[in-house]
Structure formats: C-alpha cells, structure tokens
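Task: encode each sequence below as structure tokens.

Item 1
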Amino acid sequence: MWHFLWLIPLGLIIGAYGTLIGAGGGFVLMPVLLLLYPGEKPEILTSISLAVVFFNALSGSWAYAKMKRVDYKSGLLFSAATVPGAILGSFSTALISRQLFNIIFGLLMIAVSAFLLLSPKRKKETNGDIISYYFTRNLTDANGSSHTFSYNPIIGVVSSLFVGYISSLLGIGGGIIHVPVLVYLLNFPEHIATATSHFTLAVMALTGTIVHVSTGVFSRGVRRTIFLAIGVIFGAQFGARLSSRIHGRWIIRGLAIALGFVGIRIIILAL
C-alpha cells in the first residue's frame, strides 16, 4: 500500500490547479491515469477520477465559500440538473472500448481548448440586456467586490445535464466544460464561475461515484483514491487562495493551453 505514497504530491498539484480554474482536476488526473495504467478498463479509471474530483471539489467549495464567491442558488439548480446525466454517464463508460474512450477524450479536450482560445471577449451586459425570464444575481464577495449578472436558466439546466453525462462518462469532473459555459453563455464573472462550478462538481462527482460503488467497480481503485484524495484536499485550499491573485482571463487561457496539450497527447497514444 505504501508504494502509492507518490500519489499524494500528484494529488496536491491536481487539487491546486483544478481548484484554481474550477475544473475539479479530473481533466489532469484522467490523462495521468490513462498513461500510468494502459491495461486498466475505462470504468475503473473513471471511478477513481470521479471520487478524487469529489474530494477536490468539496475542499475547494469550502475555501470558495469562505470567500463568498459561490452562487448557491444557481449552484443548486445546476447540481440538480447534473444528477441524471451523471448516473447515465457512469453506466455508459463500461460500454466503450479503451481505444475509443481515449479518442473521444482527446477530441473533447482539443475542442474545448480551441473554443476557449478563439472565442471573443465576454460581453458585459447592461440593464437593457436583462430579459424578464432571466435569473438576475447580485453577489458581494469577502473582499467587498460586487457582481451583478443575469442568465437564461433553461440554457443553464440543459448544459448542466450534458456536463453531468460527459463528466461521468469520461471521469473529468466537468469543470472544463462548465466553466466556459458559465462564462461565455451564462455571463458569469470568471471567479464566480469557477467557484460555482466547483460547488456543482461536488454534487455531480458524488453521484457518479455512488453509481460506481453500487456496481462494484470502485472497489479496485479505493487505495489509489485514498492517497490522491489526501493530496487534493490540501491542494484545493492552496488553489482557491491563489485564484485571488490571478486575473480571470489568465485562468481561462491556462485552462485552454492545458486542454490542448492533453488532448493531442491522448489521441497520439490511442492511434
């Protein structure tokens, strides 16, 4: 069991970076697991990743909550939408071959990376942009900064359902998709998006993990999960604090560059 000790510093890095960008760290962890365990079935690796994402998101959400950056009303709405998608995605993983899994995973990483790098700057709304059926949110964080924004709840729910499915299917946590959706489609400020996404990921990842536990898949990944979880819990606290010192635009760019590199690497290995 002690030969898994090296997973603690790996979890520390994943927790810090995953929380910094609001992605839960699964998009970093899954490529590592795919490289380390080439003969392992996808459902086993996704069960490990989702469980680690849960601990990362739980720890990060606690840190963001103290900063008053989590939009709880929106987060609860999005979390409820991710649950059915997460359940379906967890069951679907076992139906995909390892090679096809790698190709799907890599293509998704590249697509999201391209979107983040090529998309225009987020439009700042004015009072005239707020439509009656939109949700309008007013938040003031611990630093005294006020944030007012509005979004279409239908788009939020539908996108969260999709995020729940893809996240559990690939074991990536979902923040790599959810954060861009919150920022570019739902008009969330970057730091509020990362914090609220983290809150949503905790619920989604817990749902997917419960499914894997119930099917018996997770039993083969318990020890690896324990050591990774120890690292991400502490790393998430560091990542949340670091986010206050980094401009939101650089958070998005850092996410895009990392995704592109990961996607290309995974596809090359699959072919």
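Item 2
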Amino acid sequence: ADEFPAMQILAALGAIYGAECMLPVTSVQIAGVSYDNLGEAGLQFLSEMADGGGKTRVLTTLNPAGMDIENWRNLGIEADFAEKQERVLDAFSRMGVITTCTCTPYLVGNLPGFGEHIAWSESSAVCYANSVLGARTNRESPVNTVYCAYTGCLPKYGSHLDENRAAKCIVELTDEVRDNIKGMADWGALGAAIAEKAGNRIMAVLNLPKKMGPGATKNLISCASPGMNDPMLHLMGYTPESPTLEAAFKGKMPRKPERYKVKMDDVVEMYRHLNAIAPAPGPEKAKPVDIVFFGCPHATWDEVREVARLVKGRKVKKGVHLWVQTDTPTYFMAQ
C-alpha cells in the first residue's frame, strides 16, 4: 500500500468504517468538477495526478462542469474562468476519464447493472443507481472517487452491505396521488413528500404508477434523496432487489411495520413548503423574472421535448433567459 497512495487512503477509509475487505468496482462517477468548487488547489491536485501518468482502471465519467463547454462565451462566462475550467477537464481527460459532464450518467452510457459495486458521488445519481438500477454505491466524496477510478476498488462498507439497504418503514400512495401525479414538478414534490413521511429512513414505496419513465423516477428520487441519510429507497415494482416487501426489508420485516400514507394534500403542502423557502413577492412587489431554468438533474430527452412543446409558437419575453440544461448526447438528439 505504501507504493500506492490512492490504495493507502482507501484502506484507511475502510479501517475507519470497519470494512472487512476491498471490493472491485465496475463504474465511477466523479463530482466536484467545477473550477468554482475546486479552486487553484484542486486544479493543481488533478494536474499533478495527470502529469504523473495516473490512469483510470474502470469506466469513469464526470459531473457537470462550471460552464457550458461549447457555448460559454454566449452565456457570459469570463475567459479566465473558462481557461481554468478547461484545464480541469483536460487533466481528467488525460487520466482516462470520459468528460461527459452530466449529473445523469445513467443516461449517457455509464449504466451499471444489478448487483454491481460502483463508486459514484453525485447525490441524486447515487440514489438512482441504488434504487432503480440495482447497483450498490455510497455517496462517495469526489476525492474518493478519483482514487477508486485509479485503483478499481473501494472498501466494503455502507450501502454495499445488505443490512444497510433494508427498508425501515412503508410509505403508500393513495390512489388519487398515483393517478394524478404527472409533470416534472409533481414528481419532485412527491419525492420530497415521501421522504418527509419516512423521517430520514429507508422506505418501501407502495402503489406507484405502473409506468414511470426515467424522467419520473429521476425527479422523484432527486427530491427524496436530500431528506434521507441512506441513498436509496425501495420503489416497489421498480427496484430490482425488491420484488416483494420481504425482500425490501432484507428478510427482517416486522409483523407490524410502520406505515404512512401520502395523500394529495401532502403533495400540495410540499409545493407550499418549497415555495415558502424562497417566497414569491406579492403582486404589488412583483419583480421581473431574469431567468427560467430547467435541468437539475439534467433533463431527459422527453423533458427537453416537453419544454419545446410548451414554447412552440411563442416567444420568450425580452430580457428573460430560458435555459434547459442536459447532457451532450441528449442535446444533439434534441437539436
């Protein structure tokens, strides 16, 4: 381990968490890509690793950068920042990282399979991988994921263990909720509502619609995961490792598990709560909107198409910017 600092650091991490062994990983996703986050120290760290000849051993992709790589000039990004951001991406690229720059790596080919152990760091993507793909990952730190990409392994701890993936309660949607949740914002509000019901515990979610596409699951999960310590929820009918409630509870389902109902009133109240965090001014104090932004996490192709449908035949008000953020392949498909 002394000859391989990356392995030494991962071994120390494993010792802290009492890991019994190291696991091979098949996929890595690195966050902390923006120069605004990294600063000069982060850029130097990455450059030294790349200059030293370090290379990734497994498929590795990146979270979004701090700017649109192609259109940064049109978006008012300063040239000095752009130059440093491009140096960050160059360092990652020289190490063998695929610079996809997306928070939805599962939409651009970084798609691990059921039961695979991976090392991802983007919070909503981590929860999606555990809950929808059936892969296993913690919310790893950006630095850890770089080391995992170098070594191809990580300690066996946290969400890689069965006992840390078990449901602790049941959250059931009413039929009204199941039948009336439709748009991007609805799925987000629902995700936040079910996380609030579960009280920061892994949950099994019942009575979901029979057809939820990647946009629906993405938005539900991305708004549920901030309210959860453990990055997973069992979406019954969708989570591969949970064909039954017994499986979701990992064989330790109580005779009378705690159960909660999510009603339409709960979803509406969540809308109100989220709006109250940054209350809109009253009509007498209304201020002009400067920007309308979609795509966090990155918009799917269907979501880009829906925005295009809504603005077709109309013009955005002068002085207002409408931005839709997505991954590069979706961008070209949408064009």
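Check on item 2: DSSP finds twelve helices and eleven strands in the chain. The mean pLDDT is 93.
End of task.
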